[in-house]
């Protein structure tokens, strides 16, 4: 079977028919499924959608059990955690629902880790890192767009001269470059290419 547009997070099952991996949806399985919006909801108290998955967390005074339910806990209620807690060997520890969050100095609230500035996030060629609360994603660099070519998704150069998104002067030629473009005044004109006289 061939899927002309590919299956980003899934596999091709029939002519242009994708079977998405859990946590993804769409014709080419390129969209994250928001499990928190499903009925019935997957979490008893609170739900945080993540890329391809989700995390459950509990209201203050409850702790997250291994099966995803929230159990009342007197000790958790006393600690006053932002996202629920766990008890380990009689010690109460507040939890953060994502690896992209860390406990703040007070040990109760969670603060975001900027994976882009700490260098934890590695984005492939022609992609830039965008930080989100609790996570990050990789986006095509400016001057590039996401396209499905030779069996996978790539960030390919946008030819501004062809798409007519350049700002060259009427009396200038547009020259495409990787991720950008240049303007050169035509013969008989002088200037920057954006201004020609």
Automatic annotation (TrEMBL):
GO terms for biological process: cell adhesion; cell differentiation. Pfam families: EGF_CA. Keywords: Calcium, Cell adhesion, Developmental protein, Differentiation, Disulfide bond, EGF-like domain, Extracellular matrix, Repeat, Secreted, Signal. Its main location: secreted. It is found in: Secreted, Extracellular space, Extracellular matrix. PROSITE patterns: ASX_HYDROXYL, EGF_2, EGF_3, EGF_CA. Signal peptide: none annotated. Residues 32-71, 112-150, 157-195 form the EGF-like domain. Belongs to the nephronectin family. This is EGFL6 protein.
């Amino acid at each position: 079977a061939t899927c002309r547009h590919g299956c980003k997070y899934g596999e091709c099952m029939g002519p242009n028919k994708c079977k998405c991996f859990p946590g993804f949806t769409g014709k080419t399985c390129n969209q994250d499924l928001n499990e928190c919006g499903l009925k019935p909801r997957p979490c008893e108290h609170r739900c945080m959608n993540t890329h391809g998955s989700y995390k459950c967390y509990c209201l203050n005074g409850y702790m997250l059990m291994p099966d995803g339910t929230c159990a009342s806990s007197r000790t958790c209620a006393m600690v006053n955690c932002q996202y629920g807690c766990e008890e380990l060997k009689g010690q109460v520890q507040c939890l953060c629902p994502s690896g992209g969050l860390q406990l703040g100095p007070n040990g109760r609230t969670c603060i975001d880790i900027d994976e882009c500035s700490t260098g934890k996030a590695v984005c492939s060629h022609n992609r830039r890192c965008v930080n989100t609360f609790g996570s990050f994603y990789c986006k095509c660099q400016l001057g590039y767009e996401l396209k499905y070519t030779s069996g996978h998704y790539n960030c390919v150069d946008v030819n501004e001269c062809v798409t007519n998104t350049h700002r060259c002067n009427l009396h200038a030629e547009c020259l495409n470059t990787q991720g950008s473009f240049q303007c050169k005044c035509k013969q008989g004109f002088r200037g920057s290419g954006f201004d020609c006289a």
